[in-house]
From TrEMBL:
Domain DNA polymerase III beta sliding clamp C-terminal: 255-374
Family annotation (Gene3D superfamilies): 3.70.10.10, DNA Polymerase III, subunit A, domain 2
Species lineage: Bacteria, Pseudomonadati, Pseudomonadota, Alphaproteobacteria, Sphingomonadales
SUPFAM superfamilies documented for this protein: DNA clamp
Protein name (database record): Beta sliding clamp
InterPro entries: DNA_clamp_sf (IPR046938), DNA_polIII_beta (IPR001001), DNA_polIII_beta_C (IPR022635), DNA_polIII_beta_cen (IPR022637), DNA_polIII_beta_N (IPR022634)
Self-association state and partner proteins as the record states: Forms a ring-shaped head-to-tail homodimer around DNA.
Function comment: Confers DNA tethering and processivity to DNA polymerases and other proteins. Acts as a clamp, forming a ring around DNA (a reaction catalyzed by the clamp-loading complex) which diffuses in an ATP-independent manner freely and bidirectionally along dsDNA. Initially characterized for its ability to contact the catalytic subunit of DNA polymerase III (Pol III), a complex, multichain enzyme responsible for most of the replicative synthesis in bacteria; Pol III exhibits 3'-5' exonuclease proofreading activity.
Signal peptide annotation: none
Organism: Altericroceibacterium indicum
Transmembrane parts of this sequence: none
Amino acid sequence: MKATIERATLLRCLSHVQSVVERRNTIPILSNVLIEADSSGMLKIMATDLDLQVVESLSAVSVETAGAITVSAHLLFDIARKLPDGSQVSMETADNRMTVKAGRSRFSLPTLPRDDFPTIVEGDLPTSFELPAKKLAELIDRTRFAISTEETRYYLNGIFLHVAEDEEPVLKAAATDGHRLARFTLPRPEGAEGMPDVIVPRKAVAELRKLLEEALDGNVAIELSASKIRFSMGGEGGVVLTSKLIDGTFPDYSRVIPTGNDKLLKVDPRSLYDGVDRVATIATEKTRAVKMGLDQDRVTLSVSSPDNGTAAEEVPADYSAEGFEIGFNANYLKDILGQIEGDSVELHLADPGAPTLIRQNDKSQALYVLMPMRV
């Protein structure tokens, strides 16, 4: 194989694919990226960790000899990063080595044959639909902070996507770690009817979100079966991310969404976030709890720590039900408040022991449930 490519193009592509590659690998070839050059002048660069695979197509300056080879992902990325701006990078393979040249620099890297490189066999992906990249990015941002990191409950280690028939057909995304729940609802896209319920793993969600950052103006084609999902963005010469899905059953989360919480607190999310952030300064790791005292027209936030003393702050609010006190994990509450973009957020409360429903208003696509803490 012999091909020449602009350094900026190569660097951008490698920055996308190399983050899929794990730093420590027991199988040497999984540390490599596969580079394929074809005679039409296109280069394909691919990386995988056996559960997740990213393939990006890009135009080369020239392809003199078509071919394919695998080379260390992190090494090639570091080299591309350090090469001078605006340079052209020539890659040539011979005798199990790849020579990389740019300007006056020359590197000779060890390679492994392309035939040993594993690819995810996608099989048939019967469900296919499109979503605007901006919407898909919003769906991820509004839910992924609630994904569980507990490996024992592996079926919570991702975002649950499923279609449902509410007043109209919808596509829902949900994530929970048992302490909080985030759900985002969209009108069901054309082609998503009859789609299987799927759980997209945390790493695939993170990689997808990074790739979306550069493709926010277009649409993303989503194809899936009960075991695999593929996201294609950027059209011809774009990026394709394929991931295995989590093989498990997501719990029926709708049961924990409270419907009868009759005490409504309306408050500016920014003021409440800042107030919680300030009083939580003295909270210790064990007691990250912040107590909210609800009174007419205000919320009193307080934290007491045996080591660090006490803190309190009043935040103006709109509240007219009977007063009571409830405790929350400060970080979880801040995570949710950080997702609310308007100047008002609704907290629907019942009592100090019941889950609280949080949303911007009854029209918002995002909905959150937070379990209280004893304080």
